[in-house]
What we know:
This protein is α+β, with helices and mostly antiparallel strands. It has two domains: 44-83 and 292-408, Beta Barrel (Elongation Factor Tu (Ef-tu), domain 3), CATH 2.40.30; 96-284, Helix Hairpins. It is 57% helix and 18% strand. It contains four helices and 14 strands. The chain has helices spanning 2-40, 92-185, 191-285, 343-346; strands spanning 44-52, 55-58, 68-73, 79-80, 85-89, 288-290, 295-299, 319-320, 327-330, 335-341, 354-359, 367-374, 384-390, 403-408. A hairpin with a 7-residue loop joins strand 11 and strand 12. The protein is rod-shaped and about 175 Å long.
Amino acid sequence: MNCLLNRMTRAAVAAFCVILGANSLLALDDAPKDKEAEKAAEPVKVQGTFEATRSWELNHGLDQFGELEIKKILPHGTDVKEGQTVVWFDTESIDKKLSAAEIDIRLARITAADEQFAFDQFVAAQKLDREDAERARQSAKQAYDNYLQVDRDRKIKSAEFDIKSSKASLENAAEELKQLQQMYDADDLTEESEEIVLKRAKRSVESAQFRLESTEIRSKRTMEQSIPAEDAQTEATWERAQMAYEKTLRNLDSAKKKRDIERRKAAEALAEREADFEELRQQRKAIVIKAPGGGILLYGELNRGALNAKPSPIKAGAKVSTDQVIATVVQPKKMRVRLTLSESDLAGIKTGDSCVIKPAIDPKAEVKGVVDSIATVPFMGAKFDATVKVVGQLPDAVKPTMTATVELTK
């Protein structure tokens, strides 16, 4: 019996040793896993900036005045109400520009009136010019018609008649000579008188013959040269008259269009100057900047919710351009945290993940947050933009542009 008990005891001890060894091995196997899990649960700490979800950038936006000098501005960090004046500008340069613009308008009105008067005079003169052109055309047309209908035929008939008349004169002179010779043959006159009369008669015949020849030459030239040349000249004269008339009308139309353009240009310039002047007057009334919403007034432009590293140059006496951001009004009631993540930070983080926000001004405070957005494209270098929505209650001391540490759990 004792032997049996000893055997059982030894068996139990052996079994216990086996179990103990197995547990030790299991413990050794689980140790690395616990370390990996502990490492995986370690949060990623990222620095962020509290950013107001609602803000307004302030610039004077008075494009008619360009650069303006700040006369007065509320202090940096002032709590302002909606509609409260925060920036005042020096008006001396503005008033000078208004005065100069008013003088320009007066001159533009005179110029526009002169152009309108000149245009009216020009239109009246053009009417007379058109009438002159029409009369010149009618005169050329009348001359052309007279030549074709009357003068040409008349010249032909005149040439023919001249020949006929010259022939008649020659026949008359020859007939007279013939009769004289017959009379003288009958001894009706003395011999001396007879010779004188006959000599005169012969000369008359010779003259008539010469005139006939000259007339025939002249008439032939008229028919064969002068009339065809005059036909061509008359046609050319009429064509030129037509062309001159058409050119005159075209020139008149072109000149009228140009003068009308000049007139309208002057009128448009006047209208533009008057519109600019009216805009100047309206912008003169808005020569101060009022807060579009309630919040904290911060000088300059914010960069991803943060103030610039260097002090803002904005102050009384500083000059600012039209689109330059003079100040920013931030509403502190509702804020988010803007983060800058590296590529390694992105691994394992996604929108909707919970995180812990620890404001730098109160490190003991831990405020719950949720990853609201993560950019997939870097905004510079290898830096990615991300925002965290504040779920819990922030301490009252936290203001926009302050910093915080955000613990993200991968």
